[in-house]
Amino acid sequence: MQKRVVILGGAGLIGTHLCLRLLNEGHEVFCVDVRDKSDSPLLRQACSHDAFHFIRHNIVHSFGIRCDEIYNLASPAYLTYDKTLPVETLKVNISGSMNALETARAEHARVLYASSGDVYGLSRRDSLSEEGYFGGMGTVVGEAKRAAEALHKAYRMEYGTDTRIARLFNVYGPGADLADQRVVMKMTVAALRNRDIIIYGSGEQTRTFCWVEDAVEGLIRLMAAPEGEAAPTVNIGSMHEISMRALAELIIHLTDSRSKIIHIDARRNDSRRKTPDISTARQLLQWTPAVPLTEGLQRTISYVRKELSKVSYALRSWVEVH
Fold first, then answer.
1. What is the pLDDT of residues 13-24, one digit of tens each?
2. SS3 35
3. 161-175 tens-digit pLDDT
């Protein structure tokens, strides 16, 4: 049965893949984003689809769309916005979530909120009374995600709104902006340009990386899960850990790059390890990530290489014209 699905933040990495997946399944998709649809190389494929609707809108302002489901993926990346636009970051996650929930409440729609693994905070030995302590994270986005999760649970308790929460861990893949500051894209672009790859601290800190289409599959399964008394909260991510140093070395190897790895001072409050427990996803959704890291990196590298060649060609054309 065709559904009317709203995807907030639909021009982002995950949102783009989700739009294409739902269109392929025969649903009507409303992509809402502050960016232009042309900013996403993959989203351009959807523009000619009769069931695709692009709405340029900032969800900090109220909106209303007749729909059956809402995926709320809208959130500025904290590496870019956490220090430069903290108020906007909080507004998007908190005011934006409230506007999405009001639309869901009015339309009797199901809403899935994309939270972050950062809500778990850091393992610290410092006293909780320390003035510099910020809920274990110290990032604006992390605190905004916590508040937004509480909003979704409150709407479920008070109004009976059908809400779901997905805590995402380091999703990567093709379709991201080449200027994306998340680690896989940043390292890949640097490697293909033979530029230094910067690592904060020793590089021994470990992370996990989930292929974007695996993450989308998890989100769709969570949205389709039967409604229960409590709001389902599920971790979506890979359990394959790799150190930042090893990731950089792997990307350099796969790209046959001449890049050098440069270590600089460690970030304050940088976690030594971020690995999700995905047992709930396995049990509730029968979901586990399927694409191995090396395979996903190879696909991502192919995408970045192609996009960089377009940039290079455009620059050559400009010189020729002028």
1. 999 999 999 999
2. coil
3. 999 999 999 999 999
User: pTM of this prediction?
Assistant: 0.90
**Residue 52, C-beta contacts closer than 8 angstroms, at least 6 positions apart:** 19, 23, 29, 31, 46
- The Cα 249–Cα 185 span in angstroms is 14
The burial class, CB within 10 Å (0-12 / 13-18 / 19+), for 8 is: buried
Find all residues with CB under 8 Å of 171, minimum gap 6, and list them. 13, 14, 209, 210, 211, 212, 215, 236, 237
Tokens encoding 47: 């523009």
**Cβ atoms 275, 241 nearer than 8 A:** yes
- Tell me the Ramachandran region of residue 16: left when phi exceeds 0, alpha when psi lies from -120 to 50, beta otherwise: alpha
Q: Give the N- to C-terminal CA distance of the chain in Å, as an integer.
A: 54
CA 145, CA 236: separation in Å to the nearest integer? 15
Give residue 77's pLDDT.
62
Mean pLDDT, the chain, whole residue set: 88
Strands (DSSP E) along the chain, which ranges?
4-8, 28-33, 52-56, 69-72, 110-116, 163-168, 171-172, 197-200, 206-208, 210-211, 233-236, 241-243, 261-264
> Which region holds residue 312: left if phi is over 0, alpha if psi is between -120 and 50, else beta?
alpha
Among the residue ranges 186-190, 204-208, 313-317, the one predicted with the least confidence is 313-317
Cα 262 to Cα 63, 196, 207, 224, 257, distances in angstroms: 46, 6, 19, 45, 14
Distance CA 24, CA 27 (A): 7
Inform me whether the pLDDT recorded for 67 exceeds 90: yes
Q: How far is CA 41 from the centre of its chain?
A: 17
pLDDT tens column, 201-214: 999 999 999 999 99
Dist. CA 134–CA 147, nearest whole Å? 13
Distance CA 204, CA 53 (A): 44
